[in-house]
Queue: 2 jobs
Job 1
Amino acid sequence: MPIPFLASLYFDGYPPWLPDPYLLLKYSTAAATITLTKWYTGGRTNTAERNMHGRVVLVTGGTSGIGAVTAYELARRGAQVVLLTRLPPTDAFLVEYVDDLRARTGNNMIYAEQVDLADLYSVRQFATRWIDNAPPRRLDMIVLCAATMVPPGGKRVETAEGVEVTWMVNYLANFHLLGILSPAIRAQPFDRDVRIVIPTCSSYIASPKLDAEVESKDWTPQWAYSRSKLALMVFARAYQKHLDSYKRPDQLPMTARVVLVDPGLARTPGMRRWLSRGSLLGLLLYLIFYVFAWLFLKSPEMAAQSLLYAVMEGSLVSVPGGRLIKECMQMDCARKDVDDEEVAKKLWESSDKLIERVEKQQAVKRAKAKKEQEKREEEAKKAAQVEEIESLVGAITRSKAKSAKVTAKGSNEAPKKNGKKGKSAGNNAKYNASHCHPVFFTNKLRRPPFTILPGPESSPVVHGYVYQEGLRGVDKSAGPRL
Ligand SMILES: NC(=O)c1ccc[n+]([C@@H]2O[C@H](COP(=O)([O-])OP(=O)(O)OC[C@H]3O[C@@H](n4cnc5c(N)ncnc54)[C@H](OP(=O)(O)O)[C@@H]3O)[C@@H](O)[C@H]2O)c1
């Protein structure tokens, strides 16, 4: 097909149905440039593979961007993935996310544990729970993808514990987590290929020196981000030395490896927030100019390739740890202070001190809060008891009043039954209940009138009050005897 076409071009000249050759050249050059740019910015694809079946992997930042792709790829290969998220595992979004990941990967061994990296106490709680397990839990890999960036122009933000948030999430939380998990890493068998994968960013090159004193008015989000990444790299190399210096009981060398990874610039939620400056207008501009983001930034899938290389490349076990991986290749660091032992020592010590100070402060606060809570609970308990007693007393008083009312009502109704409606009912106020004892003072047994007048009508016998025995004596002047 191309040969006849070229022959016709040669013999018959430029065909009229083709567009202007100048335009054709222009458009094809543009298309080629875009394709080449996209190909170049897309980065390299990982070709390393490793059997991940049954390996236990802790992943931070596994719910978004590069971390989410890495978690998916690891789960797809059969790894047991534990997502360390700031949300509790009962959160509806997280439950759905984990269910979806399980369904997409066909792997049910995906779990979530709450670890808020902006909270040292939360990190400690998780890590101590992990190392408290006896026998030591299997741990093959830790992938530390979580990071935060204050959008450009944003103000300095502190965590609830009073640490600057970028420093805390990007560096200090990782320092704290790996510090506590160190015994769990060292306890792994010699033949287990343990890796600690730490993403960094090329912005570390522009970071000020770690020991440089910077006034808070000089603080910028870019400065904070690049400094946190530089600190992470210095710590990563120092941590590898810390692991290497451990003398195993079996006298075998340490096989755990720390690997630094620069994934390159990618269109992740974090990057979107950064580019849009966290504003709606910025988001609108991002969408309008999305074509540039598409052209110059990697997809999260492509950005995760270097991480997957760091996770799976077999040759990384046989080289010293602390290597930097970029575009699925080992690279040298662009800054000397990454390997400076003095800088690393100072950073380690100052981080330890900061954590100790903050944790002490927080422990005192928690103890105080706990005491207050206990006091509140005690008071609430007492109030509940008082209320219960009062309600009991009230119930007794009410029932007494009710029974008294019923008795009074019963007494009032008694004369009515005897048919002496008018007078008795009218004299209620003067009526004395003791005169009307139900047994001894019924109306039938009423005493006779006090004075009995002479005459047959007034005789007590006639009235039926006296049983007449007949005449009892000769003295007739004496009245009838009672
Ligand atoms: N994207 C890039 O262009 C680029 C370039 C160079 C290096 N990197 C590095 O690559 C890694 C991944 O970047 P990304 O852009 O994919 O990140 P991202 O999309 O911004 O995601 C950040 C992740 O960190 C988690 N996270 C943030 N704060 C947390 C906290 N306090 N506690 C627990 N988790 C927290 C987030 O959880 P939620 O989902 O709960 O918010 C989220 O899963 C980062 O280390 C980043 O520095 C990225």
Job 2
Amino acid sequence: MKKTIAEHAERFSEAAGTYDGDQDSEEYLACADLVVGHAAPDADEVVLDLGTGTGAIALALAPSAGRVIGRDISAGMLEAARSKAADAGIDTVEFGEGRFRDPGYDGQVGVVTSNFAMHHLSDDEKREAIGVIADLNPRRFVLGDVMFFGESDPSEPFYDPAVDDPATVGTLVDTLTDEGFVLVAVERVHDQVGVLVTERFGERSERAGVVGGGVE
Ligand SMILES: C[S@@+](CC[C@H](N)C(=O)[O-])C[C@H]1O[C@@H](n2cnc3c(N)ncnc32)[C@H](O)[C@@H]1O
């Protein structure tokens, strides 16, 4: 990680007021739509959205999920997310402090999502985070992010080498499969933006995050 957690948190809290208005790139919007579409939670499932920011993914998924848990390190982004949930009358989403490697949630979860956030971690930290996600035992993990399908190009608008640390698609796929995820879809939005859709082996009854703690 090129900045500390506290530095990233402060950076995003400062930007929280203008964040949503700034997210108008075709690639960001396409990536967010793909993450939401591939997450496709069942009506009784819990979704955990990591690096939730102002809740773009969490709030979009709330109407179709049982419950959505949004986790982020930035108090300002979380405050904006809570305010948007209140304005929209959505009470099935809970936003709170949590990190990729310590999400502060250990209940059952059916689907984990993350959009445009994991690239702040180094590759070793991403591996640790993906291990933590695997331990939560979701049936599906959908990762939308800055990722390199080809050569990295810092002149593109999607990342800043001073603060960001995107991985190659190959590194992400190796890490995900090492942690027991099976790649079921790859969406290339841009040479530096994509969505990886992964699922776990095993019985669904061992994994489904069902509201109330039960299993199907
Ligand atoms: C570019 S925003 C993306 C927000 C949202 N997912 C979206 O699609 O609009 C990245 C978010 O990741 C959060 N973040 C950065 N490092 C994090 C970490 N280690 N754990 C959790 N969240 C983190 C930031 O605070 C910020 O809100």
